[in-house]
Amino acid sequence: MAASSIGYLIHINFNPPIVLPSRTKSTSLSFTFSNAKHPFKWSHRICALPPAVSVMASGSSREVLPSALDSSSEPPAIFDGTPKLYISYSCPYAQRTWIARNCKGLQEKIMLVPIDLKNRPDWYKEKVYPANKVPSLEYKNEVKGESMDLIRYIDSNFEGPSLFPDDPSKREFAEELFSYFDSFYKAVISSLKEDRVNDAISAFDSIETALSKFVDGSFFLGTFSLVDIAYAPFIERFQPFLLEVKNYDITKGRTKLAAWIKEMNQIEAYTVTKRDPKEHLESYKRRFLSQL
């Protein structure tokens, strides 16, 4: 008699998101399913994400992203009690807040409202945010802006895993890195605008040094935090442009930075916000090559 086989299709959703404890290397799940004829035991090993980073809700199912609203679009129900995060899919500052929202597991709590920055709807400036920039957060009948302030606000005022450490030495260093960001950004941008990379080299050397301070992980503060969220969208854009246009690999000779980029790309809450590197490359070419 020929052997027969039974197939099982199993879907497992985690809601709320799983948060793996600090320093966890891995964990496992197992269960046993059986009936009189076909006993079945299943187990699965899960590699740990960086501490304080949540597995996105609904397992590997990604959020269905809404289309960007333009001048022809009707506004959402403004100030209806639903928190709303106004962003642009292409804006690195808005991407910061989007990542923070995802890492907190707030996909179903904070509504994502993308805006077409090239064809902005009038109602956004008139009814939502007079500064007419993204990101902005509509919450409790108020609208707040500025990405660095918003990632802190989202972390402090919404449920979900904390994205800022309790360790005083790490908090102090985090403040230094927040303050350094503008200098880092201006140094790299100056290299993109001009036919040289000296300023970018110095800036990324400083990043490598910063990533070497704590040895309990590959992130700026050892464990994943708001600091990584603050820098990731910009390094994501700088890397492909410098490599193709300036022939400069920001990871060459920088093992800490290479490891950081690799670890960041393991975090789904971040990777779902990324754009195709070719899009960044073409955007930066239009922006900077015409100036050379």
From TrEMBL:
<dbReference type="InterPro" id="IPR036249">
    <property type="entry name" value="Thioredoxin-like_sf"/>
</dbReference>
<dbReference type="Pfam" id="PF13417">
    <property type="entry name" value="GST_N_3"/>
</dbReference>
<feature type="domain" description="GST N-terminal">
    <location>
        <begin position="81"/>
        <end position="162"/>
    </location>
</feature>
<dbReference type="InterPro" id="IPR040079">
    <property type="entry name" value="Glutathione_S-Trfase"/>
</dbReference>
<dbReference type="InterPro" id="IPR004045">
    <property type="entry name" value="Glutathione_S-Trfase_N"/>
</dbReference>
<dbReference type="InterPro" id="IPR036282">
    <property type="entry name" value="Glutathione-S-Trfase_C_sf"/>
</dbReference>
<protein>
    <submittedName>
        <fullName>Protein IN2-1</fullName>
    </submittedName>
</protein>
<dbReference type="InterPro" id="IPR044629">
    <property type="entry name" value="GSTL1/2/3"/>
</dbReference>
<dbReference type="Pfam" id="PF13410">
    <property type="entry name" value="GST_C_2"/>
</dbReference>
